[in-house]
């Protein structure tokens, strides 16, 4: 520190200044941060460019598939050509098999996932709002959710037989614990000030749950449902792979017995498309419910 | 509508945050509390609002002990704490919807308070579309719609810029005069306290307590010009010295 600069500073500043004079200039990085990228200005990507990228996201794997098939390096019994898969799809769609399989699987998801939501959402709201509920349910649910739902299939077949109940049960087990904990998390994120303000405006505990906590949580609850709907759609196929007389999973097992890889591929693509459709529907619902937040 | 606090204390664990608070707020009075950060001003408002139980002493509104939150003690936070999923009108109507009122009656009241706070045009807007000052106006209208006996304000303009803040001070004075609501307001801005209050309570630290009480003998009809008068500035110096005297030693 030079005597000159020391004289210029007030005593209160002096201690922190003592070191600063000795420091080398702060190095600067050569890169320029791109504050706008992906942030507030993410809309910078034009609509056409966005759709172009979306199309490429599907087109590139499809082209690779065509190229590998066309090169004739892989046995078509292992990797059928897109044309063969398309033909298999048309055949299943034509004889009504596809519709009945898809409906069977969707029906199970509707029952199992619906039941899981009916249980998990109220339970999650209870856990999120009541410390006692949280303390009582958190440990057991936290443990149960680490038990793979698919591992319950043999047990469920012993308990419930091969019919529909065991398939609905597997879905419930696979979804209910995760959805409960995720719902509880969403509910806990409601700012405490909003609950307090509701109380000072005269709301009872139950009114606060109904008129503040629940509306504030709906978008988050729908987000949790979106994640778990994907899981449910996976579980139903797994359940049908193991034991069923109908459904998309059952169709895959059948096709495997006759080495119909083209049918397996066609069913997989259908499973993916239906899953995507469920996701899009829930996302539309979420965006409508969450209009206030964005 | 008299608010009476006698020997009120509050402990957090072994730490005494408030000690021996005696305070009376008379009907239609406007009282401001100033004091160092951490002196327990917010804690006191939360006690009066009934959000936090007192550890000792008694709080009563017109002789009725405070046992929990209620609409006769409206509270406005610094953040406004608006319900983000409700429109401006929905926020103002929140407390009214809990009461057995006809729709027409409710709508009439909501419209009146929206006009009072100058936000009729934004009735259908959502909180995220509002500026900071507009949010605080909604929060105040929402509390007033329940016709509280006492309106508790916790640094309601603390997050606003100077111009908006002065606007809001004039606004709050007008609302207070229009509605005749008793107001107890916490602020860290001494000028604001003097501009608005009829009495200023100065809080001291460790534990939080009433260190001094300063009557504000300024004319009842105040404009911003009152801040330039010698009487105002003299009061400001007095209160600022008292606040400093109450600050924790460093
Ligand atoms: N929930 C709590 N648990 C423990 N201590 C708390 C709690 N709430 C407040 N305190 C303590 O009580 C004291 C008073 O806090 P309070 O928020 O009332 O101060 P304040 O006067 O409002 O300060 P500011 O002007 O910064 O808002 C602080 O020291 C704080 O640490
Ligand atoms: Mg405070």
In short:
The complex is a heterodimer of chains A (294) and B (250). Chain A is an all-alpha fold and 294 residues long. Chain A has helices at residues 3-8, 14-20, 47-71, 82-94, 97-129, 131-144, 153-160, 164-188, 192-200, 205-242, 248-257, 261-289.
Key descriptive features of the protein:
heterodimer, A: 294 residues, mainly alpha, MetI-like fold, 12 helices, 0% strand, disordered N terminus, B: 250 residues, alpha/beta, Rossmann fold, 6-stranded mixed β-sheet, 4-stranded antiparallel β-sheet, 7 helices, 10 strands, globular, binds adenosine-5'-triphosphate, binds magnesium ion
What order do the helices and strands come in, and which of them pair?
The complex is a heterodimer of chains A (294) and B (250).
Chain A: H1 3-8, H2 14-20, H3 47-71, H4 82-94, H5 97-129, H6 131-144, H7 153-160, H8 164-188, H9 192-200, H10 205-242, H11 248-257, H12 261-289
Helix pairs in contact in A: 4-12, 5-6, 5-8, 5-10, 5-11, 6-8, 7-8, 8-10, 9-10, 10-11, 10-12, 11-12
Chain B: E1 3-12, E2 15-25, E3 30-35, H1 41-49, E4 56-61, E5 64-65, E6 73-76, H2 88-97, H3 103-116, H4 132-145, E7 150-154, H5 162-179, E8 182-186, H6 190-196, E9 199-204, E10 209-215, H7 230-245
Parallel strand pairs in B: 3-8, 3-9, 6-7, 7-8
Antiparallel strand pairs in B: 1-2, 1-4, 4-5, 9-10
Bound molecules: adenosine-5'-triphosphate and magnesium ion.
Magnesium ion binds next to helix 1 of chain B.
